[in-house]
Design brief:
The chain is α/β, with parallel strands linked by helices. It is built from 10 helices and 12 strands. Homodimer.
C-alpha cells in the first residue's frame, strides 16, 4: 500500500483546516501510512519546496494562496483542466514528473447547483477567480464582471479571459462600475482572501451594495460565516459558504493522488469541527 506525505503549500497557511480534513479522510479509508501536513512557503521559497518535495517522500500536495499561478513554472506538465484554468491547486508526482491539476472548478460548480443566471460579479482576479470564470462560463453566464486592485494582475486576467474567449468586463475595486454591477447582479462570488481568519472583521465590498435578490458565494471557509455572508444574510441575500467548495476540491484531489473516493461527510464534519474549535 502506498505510503508517504501529502500536504498543502501556501503563505500564510495557519488558517488552513485542510490537514485536519484530509487526515480524517485518510484515516477513514484505512490510509494511516499517509500523513497530510501544512507547509508555509513564501513566494521566494516556493521553487525550493516544489523541487525538493519528491525527495521528502511527497506523493503530491495542494497549492493555495498566493501560489496557484506562480507554481506552474516549476511543474513538468499540466492536466487539461489546469491548462484551461491556467492555475494549479493540486500537484501529483508521476514518476519523475510533477503534474499540475485544477480541482477548484469542480469546487465552484459544486456550490452553484441551483439555477442562477443573469449578471455575475466575481471579486478577485487570481487563481480562484480563474476557476470561477471557467465554471460560470460553463453554466452559461454571459454577463460577467471581475474586480481587481492592481493593474498588473487585472491585465494578466484580461489576457486570460481573452485566450479563453470568455466575454467579461474587468473593473477596479471601489469604482462606480463595480458598484453598479453589484446592484444589478444576481450572483456575487468572493474569490479574494478578504474576510479570512484572522482578519474576520473585513469585507471586500461596502454593505450598502448588497440586496435581497443577490446570491453570495464566498470561497473563504475560515470563518464559516464571513462578515460578507453575515451582512448578506441580514440584508436578505442568499448565502453560500466556502466549506462545500473546500470539501469538493479536496475530494477530487484525493481521487487524483490515491485513485479512490474519500468519505466526503467525514471530511466536512472534520473541517467544521476544526473551525468551531478555533473560534
Amino acid at each position: 500500500m502506498k505510503s508517504g506525505l501529502l500536504g498543502v503549500v501556501g503563505y500564510p497557511i495557519g488558517h488552513s483546516v485542510s490537514p485536519v480534513m484530509m487526515n480524517a479522510a485518510l484515516n477513514a479509508s484505512g490510509r494511516e501510512n499517509i500523513l497530510y501536513i501544512a507547509v508555509e512557503a513564501k513566494p521566494r521559497d516556493l521553487e525550493r519546496f516544489v523541487s525538493s518535495a519528491r525527495y521528502m517522500n511527497f506523493i503530491g500536495f495542494n497549492v493555495t494562496i498566493p501560489h496557484k499561478v506562480s507554481v506552474i513554472k516549476f511543474l513538468d506538465r499540466l492536466h487539461r483542466e489546469a491548462k484551461l484554468v491556467e492555475a494549479v491547486n493540486v500537484v501529483k508526482f508521476v514518476g519523475e514528473k510533477k503534474v499540475g491539476y485544477n480541482t477548484d472548478v469542480i469546487g465552484v460548480e459544486a456550490c452553484l447547483t441551483e439555477p442562477v443566471n443573469g449578471k455575475a460579479v466575481v471579486l478577485g482576479v487570481g487563481g480562484g477567480a480563474r476557476a470561477a470564470a471557467i465554471a460560470l462560463w460553463r453554466k452559461g453566464f454571459d454577463d460577467l464582471f471581475f474586480a481587481g486592485r492592481r493593474l498588473s494582475t487585472m491585465n494578466e486576467f484580461r489576457k486570460f479571459i481573452m485566450r479563453r474567449n470568455i466575454s467579461a468586463r474587468i473593473v477596479k475595486f471601489g469604482s462606480a462600475e463595480l458598484a453598479q454591477a453589484i446592484k444589478q447582479a444576481e450572483l456575487l462570488v468572493n474569490a479574494t482572501p478578504v474576510g479570512m481568519y484572522p482578519n474576520t472583521d473585513s469585507s471586500p465590498i461596502p454593505s450598502n451594495l448588497i440586496h435581497r435578490k443577490l446570491t453570495i458565494f464566498d470561497m473563504v471557509y475560515n470563518p464559516v460565516e464571513t462578515k460578507l455572508l453575515k451582512v448578506g444574510k441580514a440584508r436578505g441575500a442568499k448565502t453560500i459558504n466556502g466549506i462545500k467548495m473546500l470539501v469538493a476540491q479536496g475530494a477530487e484531489a484525493f481521487r487524483i493522488w490515491l485513485g479512490e473516493d474519500p468519505d466526503e461527510k467525514v471530511m466536512a464534519k472534520a473541517a467544521l469541527t476544526a473551525l468551531r474549535r478555533r473560534r
